[in-house]
Amino acid sequence: MTRIKFDDQIFETEHNETVLHTLLRNNVQVPYGCKAGVCQSCLMRSLDDTPPPVASQAGLKDTQQKQNYFLPCICMPENGMTVVLPNQNTWLEGEVVDKCTLSDNVMLIKLKSTEPLAFFAGQFVNLKNEAGVIRSYSIANIPNPAHELVFHIRILPNGQFSQFVANELEIGMPLSFSHAQGSCHYLEGKSEQPLLLIGTGTGLAPLYGIIRDALENHNHSGEIHLFHGSRDASGLYFEDKLREMEKNHANFHYTPCLSGEVKSRKYTKGRANQIALEKFINLEGWRVYLCGQPDMVLQAKKMAYLQGASSKEIYADAFLS
Ligand SMILES: Cc1cc2nc3c(=O)[nH]c(=O)nc-3n(C[C@H](O)[C@H](O)[C@H](O)COP(=O)(O)OP(=O)(O)OC[C@H]3O[C@@H](n4cnc5c(N)ncnc54)[C@H](O)[C@@H]3O)c2cc1C
Ligand code: FES
Fold this sequence. Notes:
Distance between the termini: 34 Å
Number of helices: 7
CATH architecture of the largest domain: 3-Layer(aba) Sandwich
Bound molecules: flavin-adenine dinucleotide, FE2/S2 (inorganic) cluster
Number of domains: 3
Strand content: 25-35%
CATH superfamily of the largest domain: Nucleotide-binding domain of ferredoxin-NADP reductase (FNR) module
Oligomer: single chain
């Protein structure tokens, strides 16, 4: 058992328990996503002289490792730790200006920032409600003069934040959010490069933003292939918008995939990642974006690399989608 100090409170870890789990078990509200060391949204910093366990710094930049940043969701503390959230006081204010339903269990929220905002489509922000619940959500729209952010939020039956969105959040209400973070966004300068985007469920949100950014803001001329996966057709929200986009842009290709029963020839049967990676065997020179279920993201990341994509060209955001 070790002691974790956070926000002037001390918590005891249980046997084989991560720092994140200890905090959540004690009802401390901290941001997290995948709980698997993939998304980095739980990033924390240790204030101790002893560095955090090496395994808890996997995937962090050298500079972050030297500053004792670590991922609490994969941190089994060896000694007592004093930990803080990075930039924990930097919250921006927004107002909800739209809320609508996209499918049985996905809602769209539009937030207008009270101040100018810099972001890339596909990055994510942390949203915080008045009860202090914090969750990460990907930005599904492109930068705009109205300083608006659009999110696609999957409503989970017992999800704290998503249930708040479904049942309590209303147009006109304030909502706090963090600065945009993450490297899952379009990169300028390689407009001829082929792009492969694979997403499950609301993993479409960042991908939709990236595709619009590529086509509308950067005149991307390389081929863009989107594979959106769901168990059933109701999960393929935005199908009409994406088919319309396909008609308007000859280099954009949309493949909706169903892992469950397929009743229409409009859909391809199978998992989006398998279909995509069987279709494009050689990914040398491609840029690959993977968003959605952590197991899909991890598997597809490995396969894309084995099929020739450079690890620097694979961008991923993993979350319950
Ligand atoms: C970088 C990043 C980007 C993200 N972007 C998005 C986004 O664009 N859209 C989006 O919707 N989410 C996104 N997420 C996930 C989001 O942050 C939350 O994790 C998610 O909305 C759940 O939060 P919650 O408070 O509703 O659920 P929590 O209160 O955190 O509860 C989650 C719990 O729900 C239960 N659960 C899990 N899966 C299911 C399921 N399939 N059915 C029923 N119950 C289940 C489990 O008990 C799980 O512990 C992102 C996460 C990260 C890290
Ligand atoms: S929640 Fe820790 S890395 Fe995703």
